[in-house]
Amino acid sequence: MGPIWASGILLITAYAQQSTFSLQQAKTMDRHLSKSFEIPAGSMSVFTMASMLSTVVIYDRVFVHVARRFTGLDRGITFLQRMGIGLVISILATLVAGFVEVKRKKAAFAHGLEDKAHSIIPISVFWLVPQYSLHGIAEAFMSIGHMEFFYDQSPESMRSTAFALFWLSISMGNYVSTLLVSLVHKFSAKQDGSNWLPDNNLNKGKLEYFYWLITCLQVFNLIYYLCCAKKYTLKPIQFQSKESDSEEGRSVELANKV
């Protein structure tokens, strides 16, 4: 179960960028719904929560029925397939995030705001909604599949430990995110003298490269996961025979008489 567990770490690494660089992007974009009302940058995560909850709600209603038609399985898809779908959607989320950052920077350069770190760029903050929503959908598929995997495949005496591994993958994903940012800070400045992730002005950086770096890492992680899932042997389901059931019934009946 260890290799399957490790494959979920990078998804959390990608998910962690919503509270860091995606938040910085939102601060530089037009967040007005009306002349008097402006969306707080930190509230953009509501789209992640909404997409996650919506995916969970409609999964059993819609997706399972569609999957049954194409796969012929009574339960729709397995938890291993569900985790794989989550990894694919997470790749799309970071890929889209990179292209949105390119568009945001083009808008900044077009209006002469590339040197003004705290100026609001005339581009709607709702361009960030796709990446937030895709991260929520990916989290719904991967996290629930992860928990189902641990609960179903772990021994009964170790299920609490298995759930602890799930939360450990979340903490590991955040640590990997911090490590990755530190490495990018160190090596991108050495390469051409310009940091991909500047602290003072995001317009002067190359955040899109960072998103696409995470995308590439997730592609390799998906290949690794597919290899592990293909070789993984599911825990056999034990069935009681009719004889053992009848013997158990006679023993219960005898105990009641006594």
TrEMBL record:
Does the record carry Membrane as a key word?
Answer: yes
Give the organism the record lists.
Answer: Rubroshorea leprosula
Designated name of the protein: Uncharacterized protein
Topology relative to the lipid bilayer, per the entry, is: Multi-pass membrane protein
Q: Which InterPro entries match?
A: MFS_trans_sf, POT_fam
Give the superkingdom in one word.
Eukaryota
Cellular location of this protein?
A: Membrane
Q: List, alphabetically, the Pfam families matched.
A: PTR2
Record field: transmembrane: 40-59, 79-100, 163-189, 209-227
